[in-house]
Write a structure and sequence with these properties.
420 residues, D-Maltodextrin-Binding Protein, domain 2, four-stranded mixed beta sheet, 20 helices, 14 strands, globular, binds beta-D-galactopyranose
């Protein structure tokens, strides 16, 4: 046995020496990708990317860091860069991309972007994050949006619930679901999930005006307004519909509660659809997708992008191939159909998408045209990370009963001020 092993090892070594050139080029043609796509639906989508890239001769070194919303991934990234060991490519959101670009850490993708005409097909709302100082520094793979409700259709049908179109109708529906013995709202008590609901709730109370003034302009009057207090009141109302075990639950496990018919609804971005599809559920038949009541016509978006770290000429070719694969229209369709998001290009047909995807694409285009498209606060597209985290802290403390709504509003004003 021992002898067989050493013979094998020797075989590999000899092989490595004999094909020295081949080994070097194989090393050139690989990318290490840091990402947080570890749920079932996310992993299926990631596989579409991996396979596409491998078919272009680039091998994939996986660096997954679990944790929805990517906070843990960003912590690991910081540690890797500090240690002088940056990954080749990193899944990143909004202001984080800009922050890394400002540090001079990201590679310039302008030549591939120019060759492939990215300027003409990527919506301006995404270019705002994908370019820095006129240079493309990341490749956007999708557009997600956060103001969605995912509902179990069987429960809605059984209880005679119509799709709620207003806050009051939503509350009435949740009351019915709770009274029937189901968990009304499937939720995971993690700061980013609380904040994802807060995105929609703030929009539902004060529309684009409040949303923009509070989360983009960081206007203390909006942050401290009666409308913001009303938003916290709505959060407290929603808190009364979650189950006892919500604390710390991962978002995909909350999706599973709706999928399995244990809970009525989940308020979550459209990555949740990836979980429903993975479980072989069909939109319109098994589950419903609709906009958070009172936010119809507006879209709060985030866009997963892959930023390339400057790691010198050696890995350059593979980085460009990755960026080019990501931006290919056929890939954007194939990937986003599985992921639950919609393409990051305006020239991709909606033909392959299901009803929720078609609705998502149409509403994104309409919101963009009517000035009702806003970056998601919860997912790093409204304000920089320090501000986002300060909002997370207040929203989560309030959701867990540490502050009443009046205190939360005061805390929000001072937390956001302190974070700037
Ligand atoms: C978001 C990201 C999505 C999805 C989600 C949950 O921030 O944009 O792609 O991964 O987190 O992990």
């Amino acid at each position: 046995m021992k002898r067989t092993l050493s013979k094998l090892a020797c075989g590999v070594a000899v092989c490595a020496i004999m094909t020295g050139a081949g080994v070097a080029s194989a090393a050139d043609s690989s990318v290490e990708v840091l990402h947080w796509w570890t749920s079932g639906g996310e992993a299926s989508a990631l596989n579409v990317l991996k396979e596409d890239l491998e078919s272009n001769g680039v091998s994939w070194k996986d660096m997954p860091v679990a944790g929805g919303g990517g906070e843990q991934a960003m912590t690991v990234l910081r540690a890797r860069v500090t240690a002088g060991n940056a990954p080749t490519a990193v899944q990143m959101l909004g202001f984080d991309i800009q922050d890394w670009a400002a540090e001079g850490a990201l590679a310039d993708l302008n030549s591939v972007a120019a060759k492939e005409g990215w300027d003409d097909v990527v919506p301006a709302a995404l270019q705002r994050f994908a370019k820095h100082d006129g240079k493309w520094i990341s490749a956007p793979v999708n557009v997600h949006s956060t103001n969605w409700v995912w509902a179990n259709k069987k429960i809605f049908d059984e209880l005679g619930i119509a799709q709620p179109a207003s806050w009051d109708e939503l509350v009435a529906a949740l009351d019915k679901i709770k009274a029937a013995g189901y968990t009304a709202v499937a939720h995971g008590g993690q700061a980013w999930q609380d904040a994802t609901i807060f995105d929609a709730v703030v929009m539902s109370v004060g529309g684009p005006d409040l949303y923009k003034k509070a989360f983009v302009d960081l206007d203390p009057a909006a942050l401290g307004s009666d409308q913001m207090k009303e938003a916290f009141d709505r959060m407290a109302t929603l808190r009364s519909y979650v189950d006892d075990n919500f604390s710390g639950r991962d978002w995909n496990l909350a999706s599973a509660m709706v999928i399995e018919g244990k809970a009525g609804v989940q308020f979550m971005g459209d990555w949740a659809k990836g979980e429903f599809l993975k479980a072989n559920l069909k939109p319109g038949e098994d589950f419903l997708c609709f906009r958070f009541p009172d936010t119809q016509g507006t879209v709060t978006f985030n866009s997963d992008q892959f930023a390339m770290f400057s790691i010198g000429e050696e890995g350059r070719d593979a980085q460009v191939k990755l960026a080019s694969s990501i931006m290919a229209p056929s890939f954007q369709s194939a990937f986003n159909v599985v992921k639950g998001s919609v393409p990051a290009r305006t020239d991709v047909s909606d033909e392959a998408f299901d009803a929720c995807g078609k609705k998502g694409m149409k509403e994104l285009a309409e919101a963009n045209a009517s000035g009702k498209l806003f970056g998601s606060m919860a997912h790093g597209h409204a304000s920089p990370a320090a501000v986002k985290n300060s909002i997370y802290d207040v929203v989560t403390a309030h959701f867990n009963g540490e502050f009443d709504s009046a205190e939360a509003v005061e805390e929000l004003v001072s937390a956001v001020e302190g974070a700037q």
